Amino acid sequence: MVAKDYPFYLSAKRANFALEAQTVTSPAKETEEPSNKRVKPLSRVTSLASLIPPVRATPLKRFSQTLQRSISFRSESRPDLFSPRPWSRNVPPANTKRRDSKLWSETFDVCVNHMLTSKEIKRQEAIFELSQGEEDLIEDLKLAKKAYHDPMLKLSIMTEQELNQIFGTLDSLIPLHEDLLRRLQEVRKPDGSTDHVGHILVGWLPCLNSYDSYCSNQVAAKALLDHKKQDHRVQDFLQRCLESPFSRKLDLWNFLDIPRSRLVKYPLLLREILRHTPNDHPDQQHLEEAINIIQGIVAEINIKTGESECQYYKERLIYLEEGQRDSLIDNSRAVCCHGELKNNRGVKLHVFLFEEVLVITRAVTHNDQLCYQLYRQPIPVRELLLEDLQDGEVRLGGSLRGAFSNNERIKNFFRVSFKNGSQSQTHSLQANDSFNKQQWLNCIRQAKEKAECAGRAGGLESRSLVSPNGRRVPQGEVALEQMEQSDCESDCSMDTSELSADCERMEQTNSCESERQIETNV
């Protein structure tokens, strides 16, 4: 064999050896003919699909029911916790610590069950669920402080001020729920049954007003946490915690959002206890009173949280010119919904629907904070025209994306327009999916209905004024009464002996005109 042919011989021998190994491991392919073609490994093949980053859908954020909806929405600035990081450890997945659900009948001696009716057993299960939920909540709150707050402070991953902003008044909630748990355990009998809980709840539920400051801080806390996740030290620490068994595959925000979800669950738990409580039971009246108390607290916190969220976003609006400022924005106390949309040129816009005005912005970074720069003049909701566009009715243009999408049906578009004199705007906006689009349409329609109803009520109220004698009468009657009073005062101050004939004729003429004016006003 020639020396120059020796490398080729080795290559052919390696190929034959690989082919023999493949034949042994894959008997089903024994009938196929061997191929001497070199096959490029799949890992080295580069396709266009691998170069295109995945499109992340941003959900619509609605705050009409702030507490009922978790505000743990995904942000564009927040990296995905489950995606691999170059600085993260390549460790095998750890065993997740799961929290098993417990039942009253399984926890305590079941021999007492033969003396209880089926309805009473369900009542004991509901009371036990309330108590067990308090234990789980206390454990999670302590875990959030011990596993997240304290280590990040000790390792200087975040400053104390930043951690106080993110965790808020979390520490003050722990003794609050420990108090309720202690009270429930004190009234529990040795066999595990509980006779009365209504009086305990009536006395304890007003303490939940302290949730006001915690829930109102959540929007600012979530924004700061998302911003800090851009720091690789913070992201690496949170990723390590997520991979640990104690986290139960929950990230930090899931733990911080647990108190809010617990708050809105209290009415459901109390109704379940009441549903299985007999009508002649002493707890019946107390449970009904407790339900009214917690519903009032949740409603009040919901309003204050919505106002806090609205103020947070209003403070982060950037106006390019003074003419963009609108009193409708300043007077808004709630955000109906907001989220990311795209126009027909593919430009990403962040749209806010306040109570009476629609604001179209672009997300920018200002002073190391996420802010929203006004893209166009704010549009009053009462004068806004909404149009639902059929799929394929809008064509993308002005971009490479539009060139490749000419033959496709462009979906999930709707149009908002506004015209007032020389000012006019038209925006074709695209939602992420049909569900998101329908949410936007519903929110805008509801906002228009409320604005129109408020306008009609304001018009009626403006026509109903207070007369000089303190009586509320229609506007026309007020004008008539004022004119009559003015005429009386003029007559009283008039000296008729000094009037001339011309003055009398002028008075008669003015009187006729005044009478006709009065009839017109009436």
Automatic annotation (TrEMBL):
It is found in: Cytoplasm. The keyword Cytoplasm applies. Gene3D superfamilies: Dbl homology (DH) domain (1.20.900.10), Pleckstrin-homology domain (PH domain)/Phosphotyrosine-binding domain (PTB) (2.30.29.30). Residues 122-304 form the DH domain. InterPro entries: DBL_dom_sf, DH_dom, Endocytic_GEF_Adapter, GDS_CDC24_CS, PH-like_dom_sf, PH_domain, PH_RhoGEF3_XPLN, SOS1_NGEF_PH. GO terms for molecular function: guanyl-nucleotide exchange factor activity. Its main location: cytoplasm. GO terms for biological process: intracellular signal transduction; positive regulation of Rho protein signal transduction. Residues 334-449 form the PH domain. GO terms for cellular component: cytoplasm. Acts as a guanine nucleotide exchange factor (GEF) for RhoA and RhoB GTPases. This is Rho guanine nucleotide exchange factor 3. It comes from Chaetorhynchus papuensis (pygmy drongo).
